[in-house]
Automatic annotation (TrEMBL):
The lineage of its organism: Bacteria, Bacillati, Bacillota, Bacilli, Lactobacillales. Pfam families: M20_dimer (PF07687), Peptidase_M20 (PF01546). This is Peptidase T. Gene3D superfamilies: 3.30.70.360, Zn peptidases (3.40.630.10). It comes from the Bacteria. Its main location: cytoplasm. The gene is pepT. The keyword Hydrolase applies. The keyword Cytoplasm applies. Its cofactor is Zn(2+). One of its GO terms (biological process) is proteolysis.
Amino acid sequence: MTYPNLLDRFLTYVKVNTRSDEHSTTTPSTQSQVDFATNVLIPEMKRVGLQNVYYLPNGFAIGTLPANDPSLTRKIGFISHMDTADFNAEGVNPQVIENYDGGVIELGNSGFKLDPADFKSLEKYPGQTLITTDGTTLLGADDKSGIAEIMTAIEYLTAHPEIKHCEIRVGFGPDEEIGVGANKFDADDFDVDFAYTVDGGPLGELQYETFSAAGSEVHFQGRNVHPGTAKGQMVNALQLAIDFHNQLPEKDRPELTEGYQGFYHLMDVTGSVEEARASYIIRDFEKDAFEARKEAMQSIADKMNQELGSDRVTLNLTDQYYNMKEVIEKDMTPITIAKAVMEDLGITPIIEPIRGGTDGSKISFMGIPTPNIFAGGENMHGRFEYVSLQTMERAVDTIIGIVAYKD
């Protein structure tokens, strides 16, 4: 189905810079997210028909569409995030490519282009309307496509009361891209039987398995002396960082793994002979394998300290989120419903693990099973990001189908 306001709504949203800031100590991490929620989303939530609309101190804008059929007793939530990733988000100037011809798309005057030779996903979209960047910013379809789709679904349901639906709760939140947005989510306040994050990629994605995730900060304390008299005295902290890294499994890196394979990802190394630091993220799907990866890093640090004769390697591990499959597989109702709805719409469900996480990873462990459904974005988090309007329309169809579903 086509939705007249969907494209304009999406273009309005993406032009607002809502990039999050991992170095911030506030929630939300940037004032732009607060302004977007209170000045743009809250008024529009009310206009499209949501009731009891409010903004919480945790940065979530919340609203409700009451059920219009007493036989539909479920309460279902839909959640998307306002922030965008760590790429230029100032001055987003989307291009709308109607009836895409399958060829190369020049991204404004930036010198960059979307070429099917480099981006095979473009082969799915001839004849469709694509929204791209101008090559200087990201687009922000992650996850403003999700927000636009949820808002459009509510608008359509309000305008078409003949479509019977259950109670719907909507939540637009901050800081998903920096991994902290759902930390303060109020599950008791949201009060639904289950929810969906509308934060996936291409058409048909339906996901209930994520990585379990941890972050690791490793500190290396060296001892700097003149290199001419260094033998037996110098301890080079940078060399310790190299030695530590070289003891990790060589092939357990993001660029060499896929599917259910986990990894260690070295994100950053800084320092000098005297002192160095390395930052890692650790990812795996299975709980035992995840714990084993953390234990392996600690074992390397312990071994190095023993060999050095002092504690020069200090490891600080922090769990970030867990595989939501552990929660959702106890009751697959949200997956069963979404799958049935997609199939009824002629959409082939793509049920694959997310090699990443969503807000649903945390919210599921707060008591609300929250799988993830497609929002349409491709090549997210950079200048090559784009989305199909037709896929966004299908996401709206899916949301409407879920809330109208009868067993």
